[in-house]
Amino acid sequence: MIWAVGGFLLLLISGIPIVLALGIAALVAIELTTTAPISIVAQRVYGGISSFTLMAIPFFVASGLLMEAGGIARRFVALAGALVGWITGSLYMVSVVTGTGLAAISGSGSADTAAISAVMVPEMKKRRYDIDLAAAIIAASGSLASIIPPSIVMIVIAVTANQSIGAMFLGGIVPGLIVMAGLMLGAWLFARRGGPAYRDGEAFTFQRLGRTFLDAAPGLLVPVVIIGGIVGGVFTATEAACVALFSTLIVTMFIYRELKPRDLPRILLKAISLSATVLIIISTASVFTWIIATQGFPAMLSAWLTGITENPIAFLLIVNLLLLVVGMFMESISAVLILLPVLLPIARSYGIDPVQFGIITALNLSIGLITPPYGICLYVASSVAGRRIEQVSRRIWLPFLCMLVALVLVTFVPAVSLWLPSVMMK
């Protein structure tokens, strides 16, 4: 176990890509601490991704890329502007609402952050908004894709925890909306103290709202079909991903007519590349989790935690602290595959619902998307805004606190994540 965990941490600190760190640490540990044949590596690599449910990932990724290229993202921005553009700090509000809408289609935080940044940052600069706070809020808005269905991270959590994907998706909706409301409130309080730049939003009119809603309606139908179909038992998550891709293709090519056949090879190749990155991490992580499980790491950690406290609240505080730190240094899917198989059985022993624990995990790791040194959403937003990561990090406290409040509610008020699944999955 020391070879696996210690080797992995050493390689991770050295800056080696996480997929290599997982693979090398697992190989060394297998050779030095077990008598298992080396063929076990191939078996675990294949077994890690030979899941019908995981087939949903490339389809959701492709759907998100089509959404960005085909005009759906721009129409979501226009609708969000009509809905909340009259509020003080209007462009911050529009970014948050747009991020929530895009999260319900793509499932990818970095993709959503890039899409929002490309549309909103130029306008924010034009109106002289605090661009560092703008990048921080956009990064947090993009990170909502880890919580709001159809989140790719949620799919991996559900598969790893052997839970219903529909229940996990439903469990993320209320926490996601709480984060959205918190970000909007925090941005409004900041903008209220700012100068006139934050008070130049367009007046609210039902005519404008109706026009932008009708324009965005075809794109809005996609998440409704996805979530409704899964929850209603019409199709599985993988089938829902295929429906999402097909629906997005129809909307962007034949309704909006902004996507041309010649654009498809480029988009699909990018989807293949992004999906392969995710799946190779899953496959190598499955080898790593197998070796630490065979070496008794879960039992040792369980004994250590129960030795510290028998109080579920104290356990959740420790887990939140651990996941927050891990999320700052590690990619979300890797963290799920390494930690969830270890922590979930312990959580069950404390009487914590697996769906609630899955949402806690996803929310912690989504906070990691906006915090250095990993913070992929923060890096994307900073890059598009033309700001250094150090500059944007000074403003990250506002969205960080908003997301932390949501995390506290999900952790200590189980109904926040469990009420909707209990009502809809009867």
Automatic annotation (TrEMBL):
Superkingdom of the source species: Bacteria
PROSITE patterns for the chain: MFS
Localization per Swiss-Prot or TrEMBL: Cell inner membrane
Major facilitator superfamily (MFS) profile domain boundaries: 320-426
Alphabetical keyword list: Cell inner membrane, Cell membrane, Membrane, Transmembrane, Transmembrane helix, Transport
Role description: Part of the tripartite ATP-independent periplasmic (TRAP) transport system.
Record text on subunit structure and interactions: The complex comprises the extracytoplasmic solute receptor protein and the two transmembrane proteins.
Protein name per the record: TRAP transporter large permease protein
